[in-house]
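Lab meeting, item 3. Inverse folding demo.
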């Protein structure tokens, strides 16, 4: 089975419990991480933002709350996740929309968006370089792409503690709350071959983004990467 098919089917099975499980496993701190990521956008007021691999809409809604004039388009290739996002989209229905699409072949014209975000999903794409180039294609000159994802802490001791939690405890909690052992075995393991913070920053630069930088949160278990499309 291709990775994209596997990931789509896996997320479809956990869509109904995805939000609740995330809140429990992060004790709600994931919302603060999203707010921090949105601050890095620095998009023009009222601009249109693309939220990639939007899932159930958490980052889309965070972007909407940060700017009342902003319009957000969330795109994801898993319809059951989008169904949950649309059900949640009561407060921002006039400004936030959700469409089905593949991040590696976005159904949008070049230079459409004033900024783009992705939350906890880059680990799941088939080709990171191709994904970054496609994101860059749909951004306006000077617009930023902000990526929020789990990362590998640089401190060896903290990394060992985090890995114990991420690879051992998270699957247990996820399975208990969602009923899907397969999903919450895959999700931690998706970090194994994922680039560390420096490696992902290199991928951004190779894809043509400028001014690439990143911010480590909570000792580096999460990182926010920022890249700008050249003016």
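The presenter then showed the designed sequence:
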């Amino acid at each position: 089975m291709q990775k994209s098919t596997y990931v789509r089917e896996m997320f479809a099975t956990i869509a109904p419990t995805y939000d609740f499980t995330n809140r429990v496993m992060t004790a709600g701190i994931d919302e603060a991480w999203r707010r921090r990521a949105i601050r890095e956008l620095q998009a023009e007021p009222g601009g249109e933002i693309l939220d990639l691999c939007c899932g159930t809409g958490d980052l889309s809604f965070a972007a909407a709350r940060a700017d009342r004039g902003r319009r957000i388009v969330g795109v994801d290739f898993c319809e059951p996740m989008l169904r949950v996002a649309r059900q949640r989209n009561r407060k921002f229905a006039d400004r936030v929309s959700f469409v089905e699409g593949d991040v590696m072949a976005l159904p949008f014209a070049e230079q459409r968006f004033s900024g783009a975000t992705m939350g906890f999903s880059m680990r799941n794409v088939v080709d990171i370089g191709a994904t970054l180039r496609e994101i860059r294609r749909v951004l306006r000159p000077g617009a930023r792409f902000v990526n929020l994802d789990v990362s590998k802490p640089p401190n060896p001791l903290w990394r060992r503690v985090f890995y114990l939690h991420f690879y051992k405890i998270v699957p247990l909690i996820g399975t208990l709350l969602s009923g899907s052992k397969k999903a919450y075995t895959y999700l931690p393991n998706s970090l194994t071959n994922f680039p560390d913070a420096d490696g992902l920053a290199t991928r951004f630069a190779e894809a043509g983004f400028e001014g690439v930088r990143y911010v480590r949160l909570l000792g580096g278990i999460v990182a926010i990467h920022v890249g700008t499309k050249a003016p």
